[in-house]
Amino acid sequence: MIQTKPLIVKLGGSVITDKQRRFSVRRETLRRIARELAAAKEPLIVVHGGGSFGHPIASKYGIAKGYAYKRQLMGFSLTHRAMEELNRYVVDALKEAGIPAMTIQPSACAVVRNGRIISMELAPIRKLLELGITPVLYGDVAPDLSRGMSILSGDQLVMYLARELGASRVILGVDVDGFYTADPKSHKDAKLVREVTPESWRDLAKSANNSKVKDTTGGMSKKIEELLPLAELGVEAEIVNAARPGILRRAVLGERGLGTRIIAR
Ligand code: ADP
User: Fold this and answer.
1) 102 lines ligand 1 (CB under 6 A)
2) CA atoms within 13 A on the CB side of 19
3) To the nearest whole percent, how much of the chain has pLDDT over 70?
4) CA angle, 155 as apex, 139 and 135 as ends, to 5°?
5) Which terminus of the chain faces fewer neighbouring Cβ atoms within 10 Å, N or C?
6) Prediction pTM value
7) Closest alpha carbon to 105 in 73, 83, 127
8) How far is the CA of 115 from the centre of ligand 1 (A)?
């Protein structure tokens, strides 16, 4: 039987875009990352965040708060459009690196209630993986059965896909070396945490700050909170620095301990 247990790699918006400048893609970084991902020997799923494309529009229109006023309808459309634009850069870079990639639009296949995915059509994704095609998903807006509209974060998609497809491993690429005791960009004395477990998280959560740049889906703590339940189900994850050349390649080739591991033990 063809092995379809996928490796899921998330490319943080902080890596592939410049979060301080609207609609700015880090094209060279993206190209390098795509080449590093091409080293993967297992079926691969790529998920990317919104960075300076999705987040500013989504927060301007309060999409994450749910539907309350008519102007949000245009905001919903515009946020999706911006994410599609970023997605095109990602898929193009993957194709240039020799990865047959294809976009799966999250808002068209995920059923969302109260900001959480309650079901998702996965048959096409499974078939793509079996064929050897890399599905690419992204943080998206979503019609929400109870709130009207919400934001479906790339991190939540990673968690859902990893659980439902039984991922071999999850790798989250960000622009810092992993999870620290505080935001390393504003706290010089922050220490890199090598491992997070459900037990150690209770203490760590108290001291950790969130992202300095305002983010519609929350910063680093939220990622850990998505990844811990996954670890408890047997899917290990690691947060690594995808902005540092070579790290992602080593991670997709199976190396452990390059950043912060999120494990159940
Ligand atoms: P992305 O959009 O790339 O998925 P975020 O911007 O949401 O990621 O989160 C990454 C950012 O979180 C880092 O750039 C870092 O400045 C910030 N951050 C906040 N708290 C922490 C922490 N405790 N450890 C590491 N990074 C943190």
Assistant:
1) no
2) 17
3) 94
4) 60
5) N
6) 0.95
7) 83
8) 21
Confirm or reject: Cβ of 133 under 6 Å from ligand 1. Answer: no
Segments making up each domain of the chain, as ranges: 7-262
Decide: 99 and 134 in contact? Cβ < 8 Å.
yes
What is the rounded CA–CA span in Å between residue 116 and residue 245?
A: 34
For the Cβ of 172 lying below 6 angstroms from any atom of ligand 1, the answer is no
Q: How confident is the model at residue 103 (pLDDT cuts 50, 70, 90)?
A: very high
Residue 226 CB–ligand 1 contact under 6 Å: no
Residue (of 131, 136, 128) closest to 95 by Cα position: 136
207 or 128, higher pLDDT: 128
Chain position carrying tokens 């999706």:
80
- In the chain, the DSSP E strands lie at 7-11, 44-48, 101-103, 110-113, 116-120, 134-138, 140-144, 148-152, 169-174, 195-196, 237-241, 260-262
Atom 4 of ligand 1 has which residue's CA nearest to it?
A: 12
Write out the two tokens for 60: 């301007």
- C-alpha 5 chain-centroid distance: 18
Q: Ligand 1 pocket, 183 CB below 6 A?
A: yes
Cα 209 to Cα 212: distance, rounded to the nearest angstrom: 8
Q: Looking at domain 7-262, which of 3.40.47.10, 3.50.50.60, 1.10.10.60, 3.40.1160.10 is its CATH number?
A: 3.40.1160.10
- pLDDT digits over 185-213, tens only? 999 999 999 999 999 998 887 765 554 44
Which atom of ligand 1 is least distant from the CA of 208?
23
